[in-house]
TrEMBL record:
Pfam families: HATPase_c, HisKA. SMART domains: HATPase_c, HisKA. It comes from Candidatus Infernicultor aquiphilus. GO terms for molecular function: ATP binding; phosphorelay sensor kinase activity. This is histidine kinase. Its EC number is 2.7.13.3. It catalyses: ATP + protein L-histidine = ADP + protein N-phospho-L-histidine. The keyword Nucleotide-binding applies. Keywords: ATP-binding, Kinase, Nucleotide-binding, Phosphoprotein, Transferase, Two-component regulatory system. It is an enzyme of class 2 (transferase). Residues 35-241 form the Histidine kinase domain. InterPro entries: HATPase_C_sf, HATPase_dom, His_kinase_dom, HisK_dim/P_dom, HisK_dim/P_sf, Sig_transdc_His_kin-like_C.
């Protein structure tokens, strides 16, 4: 399903063979990630309890107290990362209700309105005229669009255009999120859904792993096409029935 735009062809993960390789790979990394996360939890809990006890034993002006704070802060950080990792490895519990998809997308855009304007990002909405009410978990689908849109915004540090198009194709509601950002090098395309793959200095690399888990648990699909230095399109399809 690699599309084309002008003379450049988008490099993408989308055709059937690549898609099944990707699903197997994700299922594998997901299982490994979940078992490692699980194994880390117990010893980490012991470190955390021990650090809390040391904190009680030393007064705040002790030379050791700042080291103890470092241990506590970092165990909290590791605990947060492990929880996020487990969230993307196991399918989330869904609270499925009928929701207006265009309403969810509008909410996501509203929540990042200020970064869109400070980064000079123009938004084009091409919404399907037909009703867009489908059964989804609102909070999780909100997270899907937010993560993908934030990635697009982060890919356009010098401004650009974010185009969000929706359509109904057969039994699927399709959302295309397209940016004119830095694009993804061909060799990275297969890695972007892996937990902890990030090319950003402050990135955790869990955004798209979480997105993938949520989309699949809704019976949907996600694919990506990109041209390095030109832009990227993420296509999310969710079943309408
Ligand atoms: N729209 C995009 N344009 C260019 N590269 C992208 C885009 N979306 C994702 N990527 C690439 O995929 C990588 C993984 O994305 P992902 O959202 O999982 O993690 P992240 O954004 O780096 O960190 P975070 O956990 O904070 O979301 C990014 O670091 C980036 O290299
Ligand atoms: Mg991200």
């Amino acid at each position: 399903m690699s599309g084309s735009r002008g003379e450049d062809s988008y490099k993408g993960v989308g055709n059937q063979v690549k898609e099944s390789v990707l699903s197997e790979r994700l299922a594998f990394t997901g299982r490994i990630a979940a078992s490692i996360a699980h194994e880390i939890r117990n010893p980490l809990g012991n470190v955390s309890i021990a650090a809390q006890q040391l904190k009680k034993a030393y007064s705040e002006d002790s030379p050791w107290s700042k080291h103890i704070e470092v241990i506590i802060r970092n165990t909290e950080r590791i605990n947060f990362l492990i929880t996020e990792l487990l969230n993307c490895a196991r399918p989330p519990e869904l609270n499925i209700r009928p929701h207006d998809m265009h309403g969810i997308i509008e909410n996501v855009l509203d929540s990042i309105r200020s970064s869109l304007s400070t980064q000079w990002i123009k938004v084009i909405k091409k919404f399907d005229a037909k009703p867009s009410i489908i059964n989804v978990d609102r909070e999780h689908i909100n997270r899907v669009f937010l993560n993908v849109v934030i990635n697009s915004v982060e890919a356009m540090p010098k401004g650009g255009t974010l185009t969000i198009s929706t359509s109904i194709e057969g039994d699927f509601f399709m959302v295309k999120i397209q940016d004119t950002g830095v694009g993804i090098p061909e060799e990275d395309i297969i890695k972007i859904f892996d937990p902890f793959f990030s090319t950003k200095s402050m990135g955790v690399g869990l955004g798209l792993s979480i997105v993938y888990g949520i989309v699949v648990s809704h019976g949907g699909k996600i694919s990506v096409e990109s041209i390095w230095k030109r832009g990227t399109i993420f296509t999310i399809s969710l079943p309408t029935k």
